[in-house]
Amino acid sequence: MHRIFDAPDIRRLDIADGLKQLLLERRCDLNFLLQSDATTVAQELGIEKYVAQIIIDAAKKATTE
Question: How far apart (Å, rounded) are the C-alpha atoms in residues 50 and 12?
Answer without folding.
Answer: 20
